[in-house]
Design a protein that fits this description.
Elements: H1 2-11, H2 13-38, H3 65-73, E1 123-124, E2 132-137, E3 143-149, H4 167-171, E4 213-215, H5 223-228, E5 235-237, E6 240-242, H6 254-264, E7 276-280, H7 286-291, E8 297-302, H8 310-317, E9 321-323, E10 338-344, H9 352-364, E11 365-374, H10 376-379, H11 383-398, E12 402-407, E13 410-414, H12 420-423, H13 489-510, E14 520-523, H14 530-537, E15 543-549, H15 556-561, E16 565-569, E17 582-588, H16 591-594, H17 600-610, E18 611-622, H18 623-635, E19 639-644, E20 653-659, E21 662-663
Parallel strand pairs: 1-21, 7-8, 7-10, 8-9, 10-11, 14-15, 14-17, 15-16, 17-18
Antiparallel strand pairs: 2-3, 4-6, 5-6, 11-13, 12-13, 18-20, 19-20
Helix pairs in contact: 13-14
């Protein structure tokens, strides 16, 4: 029985497992020893603290040790001393170099750097002024002319703004006493050549340094320095213009001026209650430049007058601006667009023609918004100026504006929040109320109206959320936009925002947008402003001019209600800005619509005019226009690539990406 018990013990599962473990251990030991002795080792760790494992370069070589020893013994060392090796000459100093970035020669970040030169592959020499064409036979037997190269316009057109420099049309005006010469007078035909840069044009100084200085060669005009240098506007130092931050009425700087304004009326609350501002007669836009650091975005406007380059300076600095004038037509901004309107010595007679120009301010000023006037009639006690002050007080009272405060040379009024004051005025009081059928958001080539625009009874436009929440909050005026919407408009608003946040995220990751020079941006078909809002959400340090084409629904009120800037425009005509003022032009589904109304090359040549050398173009559109866009882009000297969208290669849309190179005659 005992022997049987022993046999059962060996058959038990525990003994079997132990025996198997012993056999496996012996096998691994044998294999490990064999591998160690006959093969290269794989070292995973070592008990000795060596920094690395390496194989000698003399591995597998045979040496005669005896001969080496005897050879060494034959060498004598006199007096047990060693000879001193000759001195090694110090290496020559590194070649001098010019800095183009913010990393110095030691590889560390530095604030002292120079920019301005273009990379060689961004420059094309000897472009010439002749257009190159090619004629091809079409299937129908007709000929089609392909432009293979657009030549330069004359050098005198380097600052050409087509609708404002149409001297023939201006000479034919019947009257210019109300500023008609500063309004749009577009030529019959668009550009057919490339507007050339100035001779010494350089890559613009990047933001935020550009707020304080720009290259003289990019805006080669000394007129403002001569006229306004003593008012702390602008100075010139060698090859740069410097901007000390002052203005005619704030010589000691914009920051002190803004602090004073906020102290006068705390409810202004820059960056919270006040987000969007209009600066009339802006000079070089220092007022708007210093508001940016307070989370306030300013539309700085001025006419192209004797100080004709002030808007060009503003845009070169990286500050939102465009050429515009109070004259005979409505400005191209919607009703209730601005939380505050500012005029500091803007040289506008607000009381002329029964206050028609101040009525235009009233139309654009948000319900409960502020009008700030800093001018000589506010504080000087001369008879003529005192009379102008009385006229201003009388007019603003009839407009139902509340006179809030006067401090020194600054006076501030507040627009009413509803229509109660308008409806309780004495009968026959002028100016009258506008006809209820008048659309205050209709602005394209619309004459000024000598009447008060009533506020919506439902409070639309007055009840905007504080910044920054208003950026992603669907505003009330979304319901008044004339669009065919089969689902909730708020859902459309949110869907557009989400769409562009995802797309910009893709551009940041795949196309390195945060490494691009991206300051002045234009969205040529802005919709609800989702593209511009997405740039803010991704912390891209830029501002966006949101353009709403006349060919689509007017979404400008929504754009302003969410705290962004925008303007109405017809892309069959030139835009009111100087050449070389934008770093990025973005257009989504624009050309497939506008090609039914005007020539695609007209729009593309206008884009080239307003785009800086080194700037970029992103066009997201249907396949039907891509070949033509690429042909025109190549003819303008752009570096063009076509990419699939995120929907994949079988989608009906493509992404057109182009870099504008610096072309020289």
């Amino acid at each position: 029985m005992k022997g049987l018990a022993n046999r059962d013990l060996f058959r038990s599962p525990i003994v079997v497992k132990i025996a198997a473990f012993v056999l496996v251990s012996v096998a691994f030991f044998y294999l490990g020893k064999h591998w160690t002795e006959g093969s290269t080792q794989l070292v995973f760790f070592n008990s000795r603290q060596t920094s690395s494992v390496s194989i000698s370069p003399n591995n597998d070589k045979n040496f005669d040790i005896s001969s080496l020893i005897s050879q060494n013994q034959t060498e004598s060392v006199s007096e047990k001393t060693f000879s001193v090796p000759p001195a090694v000459p110090s290496p020559p100093p590194p070649d001098a170099f010019q800095r183009f970035g913010i990393v110095n020669e030691n590889g560390t970040m530095s604030d002292e750097f120079e920019v301005g030169e273009f990379d060689p592959d961004e420059v094309v020499e000897n472009w010439g002024s002749e257009n190159g064409t090619k004629v091809e036979k079409e299937g129908s037997g007709s000929d089609r002319v392909h432009v293979q190269k657009f030549g330069f316009c004359p050098s005198s057109m380097s600052e050409y703004i087509p609708c404002l420099d149409n001297t023939g049309a201006i000479k034919r005006l019947k009257s210019t006493e109300k500023g008609e010469r500063f309004e749009r007078h577009c030529p019959a035909a668009g550009l057919s050549c490339l507007v050339p840069p100035p001779k010494n044009y350089k890559s613009p100084i990047p933001w935020p340094k550009s707020r304080d200085e720009v290259w003289f060669g990019n805006v080669p005009h000394n007129r403002l320095v001569e006229d306004k240098g003593g008012q702390n506007w602008i100075t010139r130092e060698k090859n740069k213009f410097k901007f000390p931050g002052g203005g005619t009425q704030f010589i000691h700087g914009a920051n002190e001026y803004l602090d004073r304004m906020n102290k006068m009326v705390p409810d202004i609350a820059f960056g919270q209650n006040t987000r969007v501002v209009l600066d009339v007669g802006c000079g070089v836009a220092s007022f708007g430049a210093y508001l940016l650091q307070r989370n306030v975005i300013t539309m700085s406007i001025a006419p192209k007058d004797v100080h004709e380059n002030q808007i060009q300076f503003a845009l070169e600095r990286g500050v939102p601006a465009m050429v515009a004038a109070f004259a005979t037509h409505r400005l191209l901004y919607p009703s209730q667009a601005f939380d505050l309107v500012h005029c500091s010595r803007c040289r506008i007679n607000w009381t002329r023609d029964d206050g028609i120009l101040l009525l235009e301010v009233d139309r654009m000023l948000r319900a409960g918004g502020y009008f700030v006037w800093a001018a000589q009639p506010v504080y000087k006690h001369e008879e003529v100026l005192e009379e102008q002050w009385k006229e201003m007080l009388n007019l603003t009272t009839r407009l139902c504006w509340e006179f809030v405060k006067k401090d020194g040379y600054i006076a501030i009024w507040k627009k009413p929040s509803n229509n109660s004051c308008y409806l309780n005025r004495e009968e026959g009081t002028k100016p009258p109320l506008c006809d209820p059928k008048d659309d205050p958001d209709k602005v394209w080539y619309v004459d000024l109206k000598p009447c008060i625009t009533q506020l919506p009874e439902n409070g639309y436009g007055a009840n905007v959320t504080k910044w920054p929440a208003r950026l992603q909050t669907p505003p009330d005026r979304l319901q008044s936009i004339q669009i065919d919407a089969y689902i909730s408009r708020k859902e459309l608003f949110r869907a557009e925002s989400k769409y562009w946040i995802e797309n910009i995220g893709g551009y940041v990751r795949a196309l390195h947008w945060k490494k691009m020079r991206l300051r002045n941006v234009m969205d040529m078909k802005a919709g609800f402003g989702g593209f511009g809002a997405a740039l803010i959400e991704h912390n891209l340090n830029s501002w966006v001019m949101n353009v709403v084409p006349v060919s689509g629904p007017n979404t400008l009120p929504v754009i302003y209600d969410r705290g962004l800037l925008g303007v109405m425009h017809d892309w069959c005509e030139p835009f009111d800005t100087y050449p070389r003022t934008y770093d990025l032009l973005h257009a989504a589904s624009l050309f497939s619509i506008e090609r039914k109304r005007c020539n695609i090359s007209t729009i593309m040549l206008e884009m080239d005019r307003i785009l800086r050398p080194g700037g970029r173009v992103y066009i997201r559109d249907s396949l039907s226009v891509m070949d033509e866009l690429k042909e025109i882009g190549d003819a303008m000297g752009w570096h063009v690539t076509l990419r699939d969208t995120s929907e994949g290669p079988h989608a009906s849309y493509r992404l057109f990406i182009a870099d504008k190179r610096l072309l020289r005659p």
